[in-house]
Amino acid sequence: MADELKDRVILVTGAGQGLGEAAALVFARQGATVILLGRNEKKLARVYDAIEAAGGARPAAIPLDLAKVGEPELAQMGMLIQREFGRLDGILHAANGFAFLSPLSNQKLDEWVDQFRVNVAAPFAMTRALLPLLEKSPDASVLVLGESHALAPRAYWGGYSVSKAGQQNWVEIAADEWDRFTQLRINLLVPGPIHSPFRTRTHPAEARESLPATDSIVPALLYWMGPASRGQSGHTLVFNEAG
Q1: Residues that are catalytic
Q2: I want to staple 175 with a disulfide (CB 3.0 to 4.6 A). Which of 3, 62, 224, 233 is the partner?
Q3: Which domains does the chain possess?
């Protein structure tokens, strides 16, 4: 439906490219005011300009590296959103921390720690910092983008797979603790194999036309971020089951 997200304020992490960019653009087209978060200012500026050029509500951009962020920066972000918008109706955690594919014998502690920070720890801490704003919303959704290798571990995915597996536990624990908030939900959406910059990086020889387009996941993003999914929380959903 047109304007399905009208008057909502939604934060999108990893908004500079891939699924985060696609989501930010469609959320804006559906009437939301989008807060763009990512570590690359040039990419955020490009998405910012695209939203404005399409006639969407003026977005905001927050350059932030989740591998380095701390509690003070997250608290400051909460105060900034409160001051500028007065509300927050949703978070899409699309940022993705990935080192490279390699056997466990080649993986380093720092690589594992960085991936855990970006994929699990920082999204958790950010959601906790912004929870007072989400609780005030009449209908708020937190949607976490997962990865198929977290559900079906395979050789060489190592610390990345393990860190993404932690997302499911976090989502289920949060949903259980939030059951008293009928207006607040959190879910995990696993895109599966679709065409994206990340998929190209991990499967460079794969034929692009063999995969669903990035935009094919847009209806699922709208459903789980929008009012139609109210009351559904703690779910793990797989968009494309293919391996």
Answers
A1: 160
A2: 233
A3: 9-238 (3.40.50.720)
